[in-house]
Amino acid sequence: MKYFGGCDVGSTYTKAVIIDETGKICADTTLKSKINAEVSARLAMEEVLGKVGLKSSEELAYLIGTGYGRNKVPFADENISEISCHAMGVHVTDPTVKAIIDIGGQDVKGISVDTDGTVKNFAMNDKCAAGTGRFYEAMARSFEMSLPEFSNLSLTAKNVIPITAQCTVFAESEVITLVGENKPMDEIAAGIQMAVAKRCFVMAKKAGATDSITLTGGCAKNAGLKQAIERVLKLKVIDLKTDPQLMGALGAAEYARQKGLAKV
Length: 264
Description:
Elements lengths: L2 E7 L3 E8 L4 E8 L4 H15 L10 E5 L11 E2 L2 H12 L5 E5 L4 E6 L5 E7 L7 H10 L4 H7 L14 H13 L4 H22 L5 E5 L6 H10 L3 E3 L8 H17 L1
Parallel strand pairs: 1-4, 4-5, 6-9, 9-10
Antiparallel strand pairs: 1-2, 2-3, 6-7, 7-8
């Protein structure tokens, strides 16, 4: 049996996936990224390799690096952009999905997926941290909550308190003020989720979304954001059967499988 790997070194988390010749996921892992991207990649790969009984990445038929630190995976056969890998990862998970919003630690991307899993079109907001994973970490700190707790907080809100600041720093200050004024925390959280959903509007249009879209990246697990996107963008958010945070690594592994088998 031949194995193929994908290693997605993100700014916040590093993900690795190993698949077999049929494309089945045999092992995966998600680790908090270290300051050194190469160390992150090595730790993630060591973990997934151990799960399938391999001692070294050299035992893989092919390995592709992707993500923010893709150039820091020296043991990879090659690297491919995370935009392409997210598109392919979603395609092999659910071929019906044609539009993606990928919310990473530092940027937000809108991706249109072609019938073969390649990218038709994309747009990226990497100039501002608002609406990214870093933004949500800052908001959770303001509420003195964990990210999972914060992501569900807005689901109970009966009203929405608008958040007017566009910048992460100013938005955090605005939220702290509202919390200090004893405003309902779930309604403040709802305002935050709505603000992020509105920022996703342009990305969704660039991705060619008409009636549905899927979310990838760690923020795809944010239930409040999913609800806000469905309300603001009037789009059905499709839940993926595979962990949405693994899409980049899965897509990289699938590209590795295609390239590895083509070599035979």
